[in-house]
Write a structure and sequence with these properties.
With about 350 residues, this protein is of the alpha/beta class. It folds into two domains: about 110 residues; about 210 residues, Rossmann fold (3-Layer(aba) Sandwich), CATH 3.40.50. The protein is about 40% helix and about 20% strand. The protein is built from eleven helices and 13 strands. Strands 5-4-3-6-7-12 form a six-stranded mixed beta sheet, with helices on both faces. β9 and β10 form a beta hairpin. The longest helix is centred in the N-terminal third of the chain and has 24 residues.
Amino acid sequence: MFTFQHSAYLWLLPVVLLLIFLYVRYLKWRRTTVQRLGNPRLVPVLIKGKIAGRATTKLVLVTGAIIFGIIGLANLQMGKDTEKIERKGVDVMFALDVSKSMLAKDISPDRLTRAKLLIQTMINKMSDDRTGLILFAGRAYLQSPLTVDYASTKMLLSGAGPDVVPTQGTVLGDAIEMANQAFNNKDKKSKVIILLSDGEDHDEKAAKMAENAADNGIIIHTIGIGSVAGAPIFDPTLGSNKLDAQGHEIISKLNEAELQQIAAAGKGTYQLLTNNNETVSNLLSQIDKMEAKNMGSVLFANYKSYFQYFLLVAVVLLLIDWFIPAAKKSNMSVEHSFQTTGV
């Protein structure tokens, strides 16, 4: 069993072969052109031409060095055996508020962007945990079920915005209920919901849903996005801030009390987002305290690299080429050449 660690380098091989082909064609053209200049025995003396055999040898050496060098850069690896590794972790469901109030800019650059950055940073620091993503506003939608495919979760996260959820509002209870359903409720451990919202619309059933989730062994951590002072809501479709019926700017304010109540009912913690790295560190610390469960096993092949042998051959070929002169002066004088050719 073999593979190449950096297989992209192998695409250089066809390019090299094409250049070699063109160079060989050039040599043939050059030889034909030179022969047309005059007597085949006299021309090499006059132009001090290269010896064909020597030029061919140098071409083979340089070509071989390039090919071996490319294979060395690609790093041929061969596997001797496989190792079975058990994966243990926690199921983490992110519930992200994408209502228009999350476009307020009371934290830089805006609430939604900061929340998405926090989730992305957190996923980047995970290894064996499974992650999922729920987006909610007036309704909740499961964007990504629990998976270890972090790239897929981050791709769906990057497209999250108010336009993804047509119904506006902030139904925290629906988001918690959907997350509860996304978990395997046979397990009463290793499950956590991280809810990121400004909590602006008061949802009377949110605390009740959090209690139900806690009964199923789910811990809920809430992250407050925004500020108590609040900020206008920027509407990208209008290119200006949203106004109420009287023409006044709508000010969106963080509802910490709502989020704190949910965290208490879900036996988790509440944090106000001020510093992303600090918040991520605190969340990961809470998750590390949880009992990890078996996430299945993964087979890993133990590969041995052989790049050094190919690079060594490439260097040796280049050294040999270096010591072979490209051309050799003819021992036959021009005068003697004219005499022997009858000129």
